[in-house]
Amino acid sequence: QKEVEQDPGPLSVPEGAIVSLNCTYSNSAFQYFMWYRQYSRKGPELLMYTYSSGNKEDGRFTAQVDKSSKYISLFIRDSQPSDSATYLCAMSANDMRFGAGTRLTVKP
Amino acid sequence: NAGVMQNPRHLVRRRGQEARLRCSPMKGHSHVYWYRQLPEEGLKFMVYLQKENIIDESGMPKERFSAEFPKEGPSILRIQQVVRGDSAAYFCASSSRQLAYEQYFGPGTRLTVT
Lengths: 108, 114
Hints:
The complex is a heterodimer of chains A (108) and B (114).
Chain A: E1 4-6, E2 11-14, E3 19-25, E4 32-38, E5 45-51, E6 54-58, E7 61-66, E8 71-76, E9 85-92, E10 96-98, E11 102-107
Chain B: E1 5-7, E2 10-13, E3 19-24, E4 31-37, E5 43-50, E6 53-56, E7 65-68, E8 75-79, E9 88-95, E10 104-105, E11 109-113
Parallel strand pairs in B: 2-11
Antiparallel strand pairs in B: 1-3, 3-8, 4-5, 4-9, 5-6, 7-8, 9-10, 9-11
């Protein structure tokens, strides 16, 4: 079993839809939970990070962490074509572990 | 541009040659991390360095790979005697503190071994 599991998709939604991206993990030592966005042929860009359990909102993006279920989510409201990218979850205790990434396409 | 810089962006090497990948961290950052990304896979941690010190190289293959971050100049990831399986995108990230969660990535170097 991988330490971090993420459905690679691809996921295709119409513009304006709510997008839900998820990851599960097995290491209960993880304390920080991050979401990165990676456009094609570019480096990952840090979107949000959350410490421990709870929710965090930033504009159209909401990150949720449920440590009891070892489950994290990223919600994108009013999705735009410019949101089309690969979204990577990442988790950290002393070092960083990444999910495989979910490829999202938002169609106009 | 105060972001993380990597060069070259694309590198082609024949089997058996050496590959040198360079990373200049963001201004003010003294912590550098190297990752490898294969197609359809996530980022795999390779090594974590501070100036003149290797802090964690647990993700680095034991042979042919080495990394350094000298007092002056960029961090360098060196791959000797490259093989086809080394073909991948190599990303460097930097942070200002010893906090693994707040890392900023460069654009990557795409290595192709022919």
